Amino acid sequence: MKQFNLEKEKQKVAFTLSKRNLPQMRASVGLALDISGSTANLYKRGVIQRLVEQIIPVGLRFDDNGNLDVYTFADGDAIGQVTGATEHNYADFVKREILDNNAVSKWGGTSYAPVIEQMLSDYGFRYTAKTGGFAGFGGKQTRMLKESSTSGEAVINYFITDGVNDDKKATEALLQECQDAKANMYFCIIGVGDADFSFIEHLGEKFGNVGFLNVSDLQKFVDGDDIYEQLLPTEMTDWLKQKTI
Asked: Which of 12, 42, 87, 98 could share a disulfide with 47, CB 3.0–4.6 Å?
């Protein structure tokens, strides 16, 4: 596997985007990292670290502060947000900020919807509405997408997972809500390994702001000349071109 060289990777990102005639624009870039039990070997082998490294140049190209927001997720509400990844701290980032971080819940099951909802909220796309009740009492608190979800800066979210989630209906319903509200967030779901990715492949086919990329062979992926053609698919860049910000 070739050694990671940030400057060369930044040049590759710029070249890929120039071929796509993507206008100059800003977008926040985030990472959601599966840290369920089945991913332990991927972390141990450095696969997750290398994927984080490869996404750093994309963040530097789009994000005005060069900081990638990083979330971890397992099952239920086992969600964590750690220090952002930058060009200054990416070396050993995963070990330092995630594996050695006792505040990060690790090695549980796999749920997608809670972390997606958390990111939508943190990027300002969701709000809490109260429905029902009488004279200000009772009722139900519901988190929902704002009508203004299409305004503001676009968000590119790289969602890295190794397998099957336990909340398919909730995940699909949430992404349907995003599509219906034209939420300003694109999800690039990266399936690592050879698990059954039929569900997330289905999500990529169904939703215009969701893409699916299978990295079954990390070395082949990293060493390939088309790595950023895959990390910046045409669907994503076409989606960005539609944005006015």
From this structure: 42
